[in-house]
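Let's practice the habit of predicting before peeking. Look at the sequence and jot down your guess about where helices and strands might fall. Then scroll down.
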Amino acid sequence: MKLRQQRTRELITKLLAETNNFRVEFFRPQKSLNTTQRAELFLLWWYFYFYYNFKADFADFHADWARAILDDTLSVMLVAFRGSLKTEMVKAYLVYCAVYAIEPYIIVQSFDEESSVNILYSVARMLMSELIRKDYGDIFPLSSKREEFLKKSVKNFDTTNGVKFIAKSTRQWVRGANTFNEYSGSSRPTLLVLDDIDTNDSTANSAIIDKNYNKIIGETIGAMSSERSKIIFLWNIIVSDGVVPRFVENYKNSNHWKVFTQPLLKDKNRDNLSPDNISWGEFFSVEKVREKMETEKELFEPNQLLIPLLSGRAYLPLDTIRTLPHPAYTEDAKYRDLRWYVPTTNLTEELKKYYLFMGVDTSRGGDYSSISVRTQDAKLIAHFYSKVPSDELVEVIEYIVSQGFYGRIGVEINNSGYSTIDIAKRRWWSHMLFRRKNINKQYDQSTDTLGWWTGTGTREIMLAEYEQSIRNHILTEFDDRVREETEHFANINGKPQAMPPYHDDGIMSDAICVQMFKYW
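Done guessing? Here is the structure:
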């Protein structure tokens, strides 16, 4: 479904010649229309009343979004490249809801109230536009909200036809906003728009993320109408853990949610700038995309699901990784998620040929635990990748050691790694655990601490050296699970990590393993 400009202009010309009442009835959503027809009608309405948003035809993905938004049975999550009009479409839909009283009670919520207030102010401005007022009258109550409107601080309003709008932050209670709506008979919100939920402040630590996530799925969603409710989630991925990644992970397979991720380049290849590879070629010409690559690099940041860049190149050398051969492996008879990349007929004798290095990344709340084993010349020996708790992970390490492993074991000590280390230091092979030396300058003393720390600074250095090892062809063998993770690994908000909802545990264990090369 596409509204071609020529056809659209012809319709608009005819509609402009009609009466106000004709246009209002022409655009009125009818229950007899199917979702596709309703979506096309909304897009045409948007084009007619807010034509200044458009300099080109709609793209196919605009029609897909509109269908989902107009589908009463779905809630929607949208992420797309800058300039895709996703936020403008949702604002237009809110105005559409207002003029036709489609949703009687609408809540807009952001982490910071200012963001949600800005959306409501935009909706108020759109309701005050000349064409809307000409056809639908004074829907926005300017007489009572004039001061707020002039100060651009519209926090709530009731339209003159009975639609209630309220702006909230995630730190404010939605249930307390419940007010009986005399027009609709509803005292609870029927439409919730979530925007700018994950910010630097709201993702500062896991406790804040837990609080925000539980607040939204509990109090906020719990305050919605039980008879009818819809959620539109405008999201941007800025960190590997946050409310947005958790929503995606938990709801991506739900029949009641539709998740859209729309990159500007279809196949993510920055070198392929053909018109067919640009998802909105009607607006973004090849020349325009090439110019934006230089001036607006955020278009190609990881939250747009394109190849992320660091100093003008991919964070990990994907072209190198993709061309490496896939080594053969044998699944372990006891642990099916453990793969051996050496002959297993006489495994103990095979392992005794090498001084080995092991990198261990521990599980953190739904993540995977991962173990990488390599030789001193970086040959891949074994790889384990599974969701197991700390105590079980220690058993896997011990099992690998019992097969003939001798060398250095680096266990990530962050978060759940502490409990893994606490168990491992009591095992007979604890002498192989990596120890880092801490210097106390005040008392001129040094102490040994078990485990590899991947905090700020050490993480970046470790991953930079891992990238160099790949680029310089020191690492030439990868487990497919690690290879898959490299496709979605990025510099997000200044931190190298996985793009949600993907994981980077295999990369981290392999990078720790490479660090162990220095200690033998």
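How did you do? The two ends are 63 Å apart (CA to CA).
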